[in-house]
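Dear colleague,

Thank you for sharing your sequence with our group. We've completed the structure prediction you requested, and as agreed, I am returning the results in plain text so they can be pasted directly into your records. Please verify that the sequence below matches your submission; if there's any discrepancy, let me know and we will rerun it promptly.
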Amino acid sequence: MNIQIATSWKEKLQTEFDKAYFKSLISFVKEEYQNHTCYPKGSDIFAAFDYCSLENTKVVIIGQDPYHGPNQANGLCFSVKPGITHPPSLINIFKEIVADIDTDYPENGDLERWAKQGVLLLNATLTVRAHEAGSHQNKGWEKFTDAVISTISDNLNGVIFLLWGGFAKKKAKLVDTSKHHILTSGHPSPLSANRGYWFGNKHFSITNQILVNSGEKPIKW
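Please find the predicted structure tokens below.
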């Protein structure tokens, strides 16, 4: 089975691609894309890996599902295509960035610019049926993306994991905290943010300070 994913990742994840669960997952995804409208488009399913190689990964942000509305999902968690109205969680992410590092509110909601700087924008589930949130959960994607997190933890040092909300925080058990950094907060969704669990976490300035202290370039958020 030929998975179209960046070479640096493919070398480390090939054992996952060869497992029965992954072959079953791909069969499910192919059937869903043939019979239903699904997001993101097929060529963007592994976009997070295409823009951010394994060796260049400095920061990991974990989302849950791709956006399930038309023209939104582009394969990067929390990101939308250029020109698309920013969803509520992305608005709150940008608001926190503005307050945290004293910058202008970004007009472009496409976070490809982060990914190219070493931010892996990883959804736990990489596909979804249109207008049906969670429709591709528990089909095998979570097992695969857990393996991705473990691969990062095992093969790299000093990666900063930003775990926002209860779902993402559960992934902490996959990270070796003796060699990596974990920052946690509430989710940027309005429900969590409006209760005071998101704003003021300063994750963007803290991340950059950790990177600078490690001799790495800070992220241009």
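Summary note from our side: The mean pLDDT is 96.

Kind regards,
the structure core
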